[in-house]
Design goal:
With 180 residues, this protein is mainly α. It contains seven helices and no strands. Helix content is 86%, strand content 0%. α4 packs across α6 and α4 crosses α7.
Length: 180
C-alpha cells in the first residue's frame, strides 16, 4: 500500500474542510454538482467505450493509486510456479503498461472535462442571473451566482485534487515500469 497517497488524500480533504469551515451547507449545491459530474461523465461516455470506462477510473486508477504496479506484479509472481513466471511476466508487463496508459488517458480527459463543465456552469449561472433581472433587481442574483461559483469550484476540485494526482501517480508508475 502506498502511504503517500493516503496521506495526500487526507491532507487535501482536511485543507478543503478547513477552508470551508462551518459553511459546508453553503458549499453543497446539487444543481452545480450535477452540471459538473453528469457533464463530465457524459463527455467520458462519448469519448471511450463502456468497458474501458468501467475498468479504468475505478479499477486501474484507484488500484494503482494505492498500490504500486511492482507490488501487484510481485503478488502475481509469488502465486505462480517458476516455469509459469517466465511466460507470464513479459505478457503481464505489457498488459500493465497498456492499463496504465489507458488510465492516464482517461484521467487526463476527465480532468479536462471537469474543468470545461465547471466553466459551462459559470455561463449557465450568468444566464440565470441575467434572466432574474441582475441589473433591475440585484437581490435576485443569488441562485445564478451560486451556480457560477460552485460549478467552477467543483470542476477545479475534481480536476486538480482528484484527477491530476491520480493521473500523475499512474504516469510515475508507467515511468518506473518502462525504466526497469
Amino acid at each position: 500500500m502506498d502511504i503517500a497517497t493516503i496521506i495526500g488524500a487526507i491532507l487535501a480533504i482536511c485543507a478543503l474542510g478547513m477552508g470551508i469551515g462551518s459553511n459546508l451547507k453553503s458549499m453543497l449545491h446539487l444543481q452545480s454538482l450535477a452540471i459538473v459530474m453528469v457533464g463530465t461523465l457524459g463527455a467520458l461516455f462519448v469519448s471511450f467505450p463502456l468497458p474501458e470506462l468501467i475498468k479504468a477510473p475505478f479499477g486501474i486508477g484507484l488500484r494503482y493509486a494505492f498500490f504500486t504496479p511492482k507490488a501487484v506484479l510481485r503478488r502475481i509472481s509469488e502465486s505462480l510456479g517458476s516455469g509459469e513466471k517466465e511466460q507470464i511476466s513479459r505478457g503481464d508487463l505489457q498488459k500493465l503498461k497498456k492499463e496504465l496508459e489507458l488510465g492516464i488517458l482517461i484521467y487526463s480527459r476527465m480532468k479536462t472535462y471537469a474543468q470545461a463543465t465547471g466553466w459551462i456552469g459559470v455561463f449557465v449561472g450568468l444566464v440565470i442571473m441575467l434572466e432574474n433581472g441582475f441589473f433591475t433587481n440585484p437581490s435576485k442574483f443569488g441562485p445564478g451566482m451560486a451556480i457560477c461559483i460552485l460549478t467552477a469550484f467543483y470542476g477545479i476540485v475534481i480536476a486538480y485534487i482528484i484527477c491530476l494526482p491520480i493521473q500523475t501517480k499512474l504516469e510515475r508508475h508507467l515511468s518506473l515500469i518502462q525504466d526497469s
